[in-house]
Amino acid sequence: MTYYRLKGDFINMSIMEQIRERAKWLNKTIVLPESMDRRTFQAAETILKEGIAKLIIIGTPEEVAENSKGLDISKATIINPHTYEKTQQYEDLFVELRKAKGLTHEEARRIMLSDYAYYACLMIKNGDADGMVSGACHSTADTLRPSLQIIKTKPNTKLVSAFFLMIVPDCEYGDHGAFIFADSGLEQNPDPEKLAQIAISSAESFKLLVGSEPKVAMLSHSTKGSAKHPDVDKVIEATRLAKEMAPELSLDGELQLDAAIDPGVGSSKAPGSSVAGQANVLIFPDLDAGNIGYKLVQRLAKAEAYGPICQGIARPVNDLSRGCTWEDIVGVVAITAVQCEA
Question: What CA–CA distance (Å, rounded) separates 283 from 266?
Answer without folding.
Answer: 16
